[in-house]
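Reviewers asked in the last cycle whether our approach scales beyond single polypeptides. To address this, we selected a multi-component target totalling 716 residues and predicted its structure end to end. The input consisted of the following lines:
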Amino acid sequence: MNFRIYTSEQEENICIRKKAKTWQRSGLISEEQLRLMEAETEPNVHQTNLFFRLIFFLFTWLCATAVTAFVIWLMKEPSDTAAMSILILFSIPFYVLAEYVIKKYRFYRYGIEEALAIASIVSLCVGCGMLLDKYHLDYQIEAIAVSLIFALTFFWVFLRFGFLYSALISITALSTIPFQLSLSPTEERAFLLLILCLILLINILLDKSDNEDFRKERNILIQACLLAAIYLAVNLRLPELVSLYFDDRSIILQPYAGFSSYIYWLSYILTFLIPAIGIYWGIKRRKRLIMNAGLVLACLTLATNKSYLGLTRYAWDPAILGIMLILISTLITRWLSRGPNKARYGFTAENILKPESHGINLTDLGAALTPVFVDSQQPPAQAEKYFDSGKSGGGGASRGF
Amino acid sequence: MNIPNLLQKMYEDKRLSREQLNSLLDIHGKRLFSVHHELRFFLYAGILLIIAGLGFTIKQYFAQLGDIAIIGTLTLCACAALIYCFVKGNNYSTEEVTSPNLLFDYILFFGCTVYSMDIAYIETQFHVLGDLWNNYLLVSAALFLFLAYRFDNRLVLSLALSTLAAWFGFTLSGPRFSFQEYYRLYAITYSIIVFLGGGFLYLLSMKKHFFDIYLNFAINFLFIALISGIIDYKLFSLYFLGLLAACIILVLYSLRTGKFLYMLYAIVYGYIGISIGFFDLIRHETALVFLYFIVSSLAVIIMIFLLSRKFKENE
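The resulting structure, written as C-alpha cells, was:
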C-alpha cells in the first residue's frame, strides 16, 4: 500500500538531481551536462535551499503556535477540556494545510509543510495527553498511551510525507515505553533491545536491492540510527563516560554497573560485536552511514573499555586513543594511495565527491572553540598552591590556609 | 528513470564521454568508494583527543611532572609540528592551496594549539608579563593569522580569530558570561576590525575563500552585541538602528552572492532584535503580543517565499 503524497518517480528524480549537482561540484560533469540531467529529471515540485527551509520551518512553527495560544487565550482561562478540544481541533486544519500546500504549491522539503505537519501532530498528541489525564488513568497507562500516540502519528507523517526525522522521533517515542512499565533495569534494556532489533529487522527486510535510490538512502540512515540506538542500549558504562567528560572525577564505578555479572559481560562482548558488525556490514554493502556509525561506536567501545574492566583511568587516555586514530587513518590512507589508481578493492582515499560548502563548517567551529578548552585546562599557579596547602606561614595574609 | 539509465541515455546521445560514463557508473554503483571524508574526520578527532589528553594530563599531574618537563614537551611538540609544516608545506600562493597530505592541516592546527597551551602554562605559572599577559593573545593571534595564510589553513584561521576575540576579553570558560556595556562595545569593535581586516585581504585577493570565516565571526559578534544593546536600551536606540542597517546589508549581500546562510543570520537575529524591541512596547497587551507573533511570522514567511520564488532555488 502506498501512502506517500509524492510519487516514487518524483522522489527518485530529486535524488538523481542531488547526485548530479554533487558530480558537477566535484568536476565530474560539466555545467551543461548538469542542465541536461536536470531537464531529463524534472520532479515537478518546488524545493528551496537549506537556509530558507530552516527559516520557513521556524516561522511557520512560530505562527502555528501563536495562533493556537491566541485562541486558547481568547477563551479567558479555559477549562482543561476546552484547551484539549482546541488542541485536538487545531491539529486538523494544520494537517489539512500541510497537505494543501504540498498539492497546491508542490512543496518538497520547503519547511512550511513540514512545520504544519509537525505542529499538527504535536497539537494532537498534547491534546490526547490532556484527554487521557482527564480520565485520571494510571500514570503508566497514560505515559504508554501518549508514547504510542506520538510513535504512531509521527510514523504516519513519515509514511505520508517521508520526513526522516519523524521516523526517528517515532522510534524514540516507542523506545520510551519499556521505561514506563516498572521493570527492572535488565528487563527495561532487554525490552528496548527487542523493540529496536525488531524495527531494524523489519527495515532490513524491506530494504530490497531493487528499491529506488532514494528509498535505499532513507533506509540506510534509519538503519545507522537504529544500530547506534542498539549500541547505546547495550553499553552499560556510557553514563559514566559522560560524567567523566563533565569532569566529575568523584564518580565511583558501580560493580557490574548495577546489573548481574552475566548481563554485564554479555553487554561487554556486544559493545565490541555491534561496531564490528556495523563496520563489516557497511564495508561489504558499501553503506557509508552504517560504516561510519560502526567506526564511531568502535571509538566509544574503546573509551568505555577501561570502565568495563575496572581499570584505572588516566588523564592521558584520550591522547592514546587519538594517537591510535591518527595512526590507523594514516596507515589506511597510505595503503589506499599506493594501490593501482590510488584505490584498493574499490576504496580510495581521494576526494571524489565534494560536499556543498556553506562558508563555514563544524570543523572550523571546533577549532574556534579550542582556546576555550586550553583556557579551562590550565592548572592553578604553583605559588598559590604552595600557600593553599598550608606549607607557608603566610605572615598575616588574608588567604585561607 | 534511474541513474544508470539516465547516464546510458546521455552516452548514447553523445552528451557524455565513455570515460565519464564509466567513472560515474563506478561511483554510483559504489565500485569506487571514497573514504576521504571519514579519514579526515578521524584525523581531526584524533588531534582533538591528543590535545584533550595533553590538557587533562597537565592539569592533573603538573605538580609531579614539573615545569621543565611540561614546558619542554609542549615546546618540543609545537616546534616539531611547525618545522614539519615549513619543511613539507607547499609554496605560498594567494589562491587556494591544496595540502601536501591529509594529515598536514591537522599537524599545523596541533602545533598552534600546543603553542597556546605552552604559552598559557608559562604565564599561569610564572606571570612573566603580569597584568599585560593579554598581549600573549594578541601575539598568538597574529602568529596564527600568519600561519593560516602561509599554509592555507581554515582551522588555524578560526583559531586566530577566536584568540583575537579572547584578547578583546571574550571567554566562554570563565565565570563572566554577561554582555555588559564594556563587552558590548568591544564586541562591536571586534566585529568591525574582523570584517574590515577580512574585507581588506579579500580586496587584495589574498585567500579570497577565507572571507566567509571572517564574515561569520564578525556577524555573530556584531548581532549578539546589538541584540544585547536592544535588551538594555530598547527600541529607540542606536543599537536598534544598527541592527536594522546590519540586517539590510546582510540580506543584500546574501542576495547578491547567493549565500543564504547570511540570509538566515539576518532574518533570525533581526527578528529576535525587533521582537525584543516591540515586546517592550506591547507587553501589557497580551492580545497584541499574540497578534504581533502571528502577523510578523506570516510577514517573514511571505517575504522569504517571494524571495525564494524569485531566485528559483532548487536546493
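Residues 80-105 of chain A form the longest helix (26 residues). We regard this as preliminary and will revisit it once experimental data from Aim 1 are available.
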